[in-house]
Amino acid sequence: MNSDFPFTRDLVLIGGGHAHALVLRKWGMKPLPGARLTLIDPNPKAPYTGMLPGHIAGHYPRAALDIDLVRLAHFASARLIVGAATAIDRAARRVSVEGRPDIAYDILSIDVGITSAPAQTLGFDKHGIAAKPLGPFADRWQAFVDDVGAGTAAPDCTILGGGVAGIELAMAMRHRLSRVPATPRICVIDTDRVLSGVAPATARILRKHMQNAGIDVIEHAEIIEVTGKTVELADGRSVNSSLTVAAAGARPWPWLGDTGLDLTDGFITVGPNLRSVTDPAVFAAGDCAHLDHAPRPKAGVYAVRAAPILHDNLRAALSEQTQMRQYEPQKRYLKLVSLGGKAAVADRGALGITLPGLWYWKDWIDQRFMQKFRDLPVMSAPPLPQEAALGMAEELAEHPMICGGCGAKVGPAALQTALSGARTNQRSDVVIRPGDDAGALRIGGQIQVISTDHLRAFTADPWLMSRITALHALGDVWAMGAAPQAALVNLVLPRMSGPLQARTLAEIMAAAQEVMEDAGAEIIGGHTTQGAELTIGYTVTGLMPEDRAPIGLDGARPGDHLILTGALGTGVILAADMAGQADGDFVQSALHQMAASPQSAVQSLISAHAMTDVTGFGLAGHLLGICRASGFGATLDMATLPLLDGALALLEAGSRSSLHSANKAYSEPDLVGFDNTAHSEVLFDPQTAGGFLAALAPEDTRSALAQMASSGIPAVQIGTIEEAPAQITLR
């Protein structure tokens, strides 16, 4: 998170709906100086509802529906908080988010969509699924199709709700299941008459298509219960249903009712400027909003059309401009209703027609909308100066950017040279040499280990960055077999106003306190300063009895098994993320691994002869450290290396961390059998908050792996220590 101007105001967006997605895209083209932008959403991707019937029918893969919020937030220089907002404290101007401290705001915008789950239907929460929100439904549908194809589920589907959305889904389901192959039985149930909200001509066309497809329709029905296999009606009828989907109407999210905002039928009441009629600091758009001056049905077209007005008015509110744009939604809009196959009916006003090519027109409209987020504009690098020192152009060509995390560190060869003369051997209470994970001091009958680590921010979320950095720093203490004792916090904050400094520090310290408390350590002080960008560091200490030697790099023995916890690939994923080229799911998975505490894993490895955390020098560099310190070689089984999702594909595409080449130059001469494939290149990928590499006796390996497996900790044996020169043989 960096800026040429100080941050002075916080704009927070709750929800990655269509309006907010378009606001983020437009913001990225021209950010407002001084405004810090935050997006809160439960998922790293937001699905586009317009293409849902096509996906259900099998015309689009799941990924085609997704707006990648990770890439979009990066483009907009916004922080993305993947979590569910649960409440708003308007007096304190704070948003509550599950699993983390509150997020402060100066201006707030809400675009969280709706749910189509029935309010009170016995058994639905357990056995049914709402069509909205789209993400969970799309995932459930794919699992259902797989089960039908495998013969473990009957192809019986029931849609609760006979509006356009329900009918579209019914025909899409019929089309897809008929290709499994299966003989689908689809039923639409409505408490009233189906298709009452469309033109009579459109209703006739849709009813005819449903009849031809063999889709049953039950109207004026009262549903009393949903079970795992049926939908029970009040008149005694029982409809077979292995998958029951609610697509009836639009319900607001219940937590909005506790905000104190003026609501209309549970939806946030806004004026023509999309501002809450209750609170001028709150805006809303999309299906969760009610336009007080021009009520409209819930439809994505209104969110899309409102986005430019919302964007401009949010900027105006942040800069306290009095003039705001007014949103006047159209009274009618064209609906293109899919018919299951690649055909559609057009509905507008009293008109309903079907013509060849209508589906392809709808597809063109949808694809054009999604293309806005697939091909985000690439911001060009500033031009090189006409006059520059020798070598600058070559350095920029090789390293066009500096990665965050461990990818920003100095290379191992340069660091080793710098440390070669650091030890003076003038103190008897210093019991370990430079090069191990932490220093060790003999103090009062105990051994105290001490280490420090600082990371250049790779996420704009200071809470998450603080948590990952704290765990990363403690890794050196844990790797030595010590119990964490104390921590000093060292921070560089980007320029920001006093109130934003306080907010940011509160988030950073909340994460630090949580990590250190769980580890049994105390925060005893630190240092702060302001600079160009966010950098977080921790100096940490740990303790162990004097009669137990620290676990270093030099204890590995021939025959030891090499155990690796976690998965590799954080360096290349973070590098691709900085370049706007990483899939949001892959980024989120990497962040999730980095933010998970490895403390239980370390306790299972306490009998290790040698151990280190795998960080900036990559797996090869850290394993060579063990080999050289112990005086033995290692054999590495390349097929066993665990990789994060997306890491191999990014390496194959040529993505590299800025430290990758230095790691390769350092380690490759001592690798036997290196073949220059992307799979081998992962050995040089710098890890941040990486797993642990431990050399254990075979009998201890079995016990350690069993303990970690029982705790759900990913760990594998990747090789052995050999009676051989200090090099690594790849197999």
| Envelope shape | globular
Strand order across the largest sheet: 31-34-30-35-32-36-33
> How many distinct helices?
21
Point out poorly predicted stretches.
none
- Let me know the largest β-sheet: 7 strands, mixed
Count of distinct strands = 36
Provide the CATH architecture of the largest domain: 3-Layer(bba) Sandwich
Give the N-to-C terminal Cα separation.
42 Å
CATH class membership of the largest domain: Alpha Beta
Helix content: 25-40%
The radius of gyration over CA amounts to 29 Å
Which topology of the largest domain does CATH recognise? FAD/NAD(P)-binding domain
What is the assigned CATH homologous superfamily of the largest domain?
FAD/NAD(P)-binding domain
Structural class: alpha/beta
Proportion of residues in extended strands: 15-25%
Number of domains: 4
Word description of this protein:
This protein is of the alpha/beta class. It folds into 4 domains: 9-114 and 252-331, 3-Layer(bba) Sandwich (FAD/NAD(P)-binding domain), CATH 3.50.50.60; 115-251 and 334-376, FAD/NAD(P)-binding domain (3-Layer(bba) Sandwich), CATH 3.50.50; 437-550, PurM-like, N-terminal domain (60s Ribosomal Protein L30, Chain: A); 552-731, PurM-like C-terminal domain (Phosphoribosyl-aminoimidazole Synthetase, Chain A, domain 2). Helix content is 32%, strand content 25%. The strands form 9 sheets. A 7-stranded mixed β-sheet has the order 31-34-30-35-32-36-33, sandwiched between helices. A 5-stranded parallel β-sheet has the order 5-2-1-9-20, with helices on one face. The mean pLDDT is 91.
